[in-house]
Amino acid sequence: MTGDAKAPSSYQRFYAVIRKIPRGRVATYGQIATLAGLDGQARQVGYALAALGRSSAVPWQRVINAQGRISMRSSGPGGSIVQQRLLEREGIEFQPGGRVALTRYQWRKRGS
DNA sequence: CCACTGACGAGTG
DNA sequence: GCACTCGCCAGTG
After folding, report:
1. In angstroms, rounded to a whole number, what is the distance separating the alpha carbons of residues A100 and A82?
2. pLDDT at A66
3. pTM for the predicted model, two decimal places
Protein backbone atom coordinates (compact mmCIF):
# COMPACT_ATOMS: atom_id res chain seq x y z
CA MET A 1 0.00 0.00 0.00
CA THR A 2 2.40 2.59 -0.99
CA GLY A 3 -0.36 4.62 -2.35
CA ASP A 4 -2.66 5.13 0.52
CA ALA A 5 -5.19 6.40 -1.95
CA LYS A 6 -4.43 9.87 -0.70
CA ALA A 7 -6.88 11.97 1.23
CA PRO A 8 -10.02 9.93 1.03
CA SER A 9 -12.63 12.60 1.53
CA SER A 10 -12.76 13.65 5.15
CA TYR A 11 -16.08 11.86 5.26
CA GLN A 12 -14.51 8.42 5.02
CA ARG A 13 -12.34 9.41 7.92
CA PHE A 14 -15.31 10.15 10.13
CA TYR A 15 -17.11 7.00 9.08
CA ALA A 16 -14.12 4.92 10.08
CA VAL A 17 -14.23 6.33 13.59
CA ILE A 18 -17.99 6.08 13.98
CA ARG A 19 -17.84 2.43 12.97
CA LYS A 20 -15.67 1.82 16.01
CA ILE A 21 -18.35 2.97 18.41
CA PRO A 22 -19.44 -0.11 20.37
CA ARG A 23 -23.08 -0.99 20.62
CA GLY A 24 -24.87 0.60 23.56
CA ARG A 25 -22.51 3.57 23.49
CA VAL A 26 -22.73 7.05 22.00
CA ALA A 27 -20.20 9.65 20.89
CA THR A 28 -20.38 13.37 20.28
CA TYR A 29 -19.61 15.17 17.03
CA GLY A 30 -16.59 16.86 18.53
CA GLN A 31 -15.34 13.54 19.80
CA ILE A 32 -15.58 11.98 16.37
CA ALA A 33 -13.72 14.89 14.83
CA THR A 34 -10.97 14.64 17.43
CA LEU A 35 -10.56 10.90 17.05
CA ALA A 36 -10.47 11.35 13.30
CA GLY A 37 -7.62 13.76 13.70
CA LEU A 38 -9.69 16.76 12.72
CA ASP A 39 -10.25 18.34 16.08
CA GLY A 40 -12.52 21.33 15.82
CA GLN A 41 -14.40 20.23 12.76
CA ALA A 42 -17.44 18.94 14.57
CA ARG A 43 -19.53 20.66 11.95
CA GLN A 44 -18.03 18.60 9.18
CA VAL A 45 -18.93 15.47 11.09
CA GLY A 46 -22.59 16.34 11.00
CA TYR A 47 -22.24 17.34 7.40
CA ALA A 48 -20.75 13.99 6.54
CA LEU A 49 -23.50 12.10 8.32
CA ALA A 50 -26.17 14.12 6.60
CA ALA A 51 -24.72 13.16 3.25
CA LEU A 52 -24.59 9.54 4.30
CA GLY A 53 -28.05 8.07 4.41
CA ARG A 54 -30.07 5.66 6.48
CA SER A 55 -28.89 2.61 4.52
CA SER A 56 -25.29 3.24 5.32
CA ALA A 57 -22.95 0.81 7.02
CA VAL A 58 -22.26 3.46 9.64
CA PRO A 59 -24.05 3.55 12.99
CA TRP A 60 -24.90 7.23 12.59
CA GLN A 61 -27.50 6.93 15.32
CA ARG A 62 -24.75 6.66 17.90
CA VAL A 63 -23.56 10.14 17.11
CA ILE A 64 -25.18 12.91 19.11
CA ASN A 65 -24.22 16.46 20.07
CA ALA A 66 -22.21 17.51 23.13
CA GLN A 67 -25.38 18.27 25.01
CA GLY A 68 -26.42 14.66 24.92
CA ARG A 69 -29.24 15.54 22.60
CA ILE A 70 -30.13 14.28 19.17
CA SER A 71 -29.72 16.84 16.43
CA MET A 72 -32.34 17.26 13.78
CA ARG A 73 -31.52 16.36 10.19
CA SER A 74 -34.08 18.16 8.19
CA SER A 75 -37.73 17.80 7.92
CA GLY A 76 -38.87 18.74 11.33
CA PRO A 77 -38.87 16.86 14.60
CA GLY A 78 -39.89 13.38 13.44
CA GLY A 79 -36.35 12.50 12.46
CA SER A 80 -34.92 12.67 15.95
CA ILE A 81 -37.45 10.22 17.37
CA VAL A 82 -36.30 7.57 14.95
CA GLN A 83 -32.75 7.88 16.13
CA GLN A 84 -33.85 7.76 19.75
CA ARG A 85 -35.73 4.59 19.03
CA LEU A 86 -32.61 2.95 17.61
CA LEU A 87 -30.52 3.96 20.59
CA GLU A 88 -33.04 2.75 23.13
CA ARG A 89 -32.98 -0.52 21.30
CA GLU A 90 -29.26 -0.76 22.00
CA GLY A 91 -29.87 -0.31 25.69
CA ILE A 92 -29.37 3.44 25.95
CA GLU A 93 -31.65 5.19 28.38
CA PHE A 94 -33.09 8.64 27.71
CA GLN A 95 -33.81 11.26 30.33
CA PRO A 96 -36.89 13.46 30.32
CA GLY A 97 -36.42 15.99 27.55
CA GLY A 98 -34.99 13.49 25.11
CA ARG A 99 -31.53 13.74 26.56
CA VAL A 100 -28.87 11.06 27.08
CA ALA A 101 -26.60 10.87 30.12
CA LEU A 102 -23.25 11.27 28.44
CA THR A 103 -21.60 10.68 31.80
CA ARG A 104 -22.96 7.21 31.53
CA TYR A 105 -23.22 6.32 27.85
CA GLN A 106 -20.52 8.34 26.14
CA TRP A 107 -17.99 6.12 24.43
CA ARG A 108 -14.57 6.47 25.90
CA LYS A 109 -11.26 4.80 25.49
CA ARG A 110 -10.29 2.62 28.41
CA GLY A 111 -8.47 4.56 31.05
CA SER A 112 -9.72 8.05 30.61
C1' DC B 1 -14.32 35.03 -5.87
C1' DC B 2 -18.30 36.22 -2.70
C1' DA B 3 -22.39 35.10 0.18
C1' DC B 4 -25.14 31.83 2.46
C1' DT B 5 -26.16 27.50 4.59
C1' DG B 6 -25.49 23.48 7.50
C1' DA B 7 -26.78 16.32 12.09
C1' DC B 8 -21.69 21.46 15.97
C1' DG B 9 -18.73 23.30 20.08
C1' DA B 10 -17.27 26.38 23.45
C1' DG B 11 -17.53 30.77 25.66
C1' DT B 12 -20.11 34.77 27.67
C1' DG B 13 -24.00 37.33 30.05
C1' DG C 1 -31.55 27.03 30.91
C1' DC C 2 -31.59 30.49 27.07
C1' DA C 3 -29.79 33.88 23.56
C1' DC C 4 -25.95 35.54 21.20
C1' DT C 5 -21.14 35.37 19.03
C1' DC C 6 -17.13 33.33 16.91
C1' DG C 7 -14.62 29.60 14.84
C1' DC C 8 -14.11 25.66 11.21
C1' DC C 9 -14.85 23.75 6.64
C1' DA C 10 -17.45 21.90 2.42
C1' DG C 11 -21.11 22.44 -0.93
C1' DT C 12 -24.04 25.34 -3.82
C1' DG C 13 -25.63 29.46 -6.61
Report:
1. 15
2. 95
3. 0.89
